[in-house]
Amino acid sequence: MTAMTSQTTGLRRRVLVLLLMIVGAGAALAQRRLVVADVETMLPVAGVNVQGKDQVSVSDSAGVFQVPEGSRSLLFSHVNYESRIVNMDEVAGDTVYIISKLLGVKEVVVFGKGKLDDRLDDLNKNLRRQIKEAQLLANDPNKPASLPLGLLAKLLPKKWRPGYKDAQRKKRHDDILRSY
């Protein structure tokens, strides 16, 4: 009889431990899993601080975070998004949407000056400077100054010089004939 009572007592203990483990696991799993997403793109947002009454958590790379079952309201905050307080009674489904701070940015149009414009401006400045120098060097200041063609050819880029394309075409033609 004592052997029977010790077996039932051991069985009762095992059942009690198993029951306590199930209740403990159930309490641990009594959390709600939610996702934080951008309201415009509907994509999950990582790194959102979620602050409840007793805890602070951060959403993972998939925008997922855990909320204890007893939480009534949560504060969502992120650097690029508006802070938002949400009552858990209002959350239908498993997604909470937050609004980006960047929605209010209007279109920006940038006008610039290209490299070609800068090169032409520099070329015009150099030509004006050399004309003035040539006029000062001349004996007669009323006489218009003229620039030698060689100086003008040095100022212009190669592809703008007269006959450059023809010379390149002739060079390519000669290379083709030499290769045969």
How would you describe what is shown here?
The chain has helices spanning 2-28, 115-137, 149-155, 164-179, and strands spanning 31-38, 49-51, 56-58, 64-68, 73-78, 81-87, 95-98. The protein has 180 residues and is α+β, with helices and mostly antiparallel strands. A four-stranded antiparallel sheet has the order 3-2-5-6, with no helix packed on it. The chain has a three-stranded mixed sheet with strand order 4-1-7, with no helix packed on it. The longest helix has 27 residues, at 2-28.
Descriptive key words:
180 residues, alpha+beta, four-stranded antiparallel sheet, 4 helices, elongated
Condensed summary:
By secondary structure, this protein is of the alpha+beta class.
Tell me the span between the first and last alpha carbons: 114 Å
Strand portion = 15-25%
Estimate the helix proportion, in percent: 40-55%
Counted beta strands: 7
Any chance you could write out the topology, listing elements then pairs?
Elements: H1 2-28, E1 31-38, E2 49-51, E3 56-58, E4 64-68, E5 73-78, E6 81-87, E7 95-98, H2 115-137, H3 149-155, H4 164-179
Parallel strand pairs: 1-7
Antiparallel strand pairs: 1-4, 2-3, 2-5, 5-6
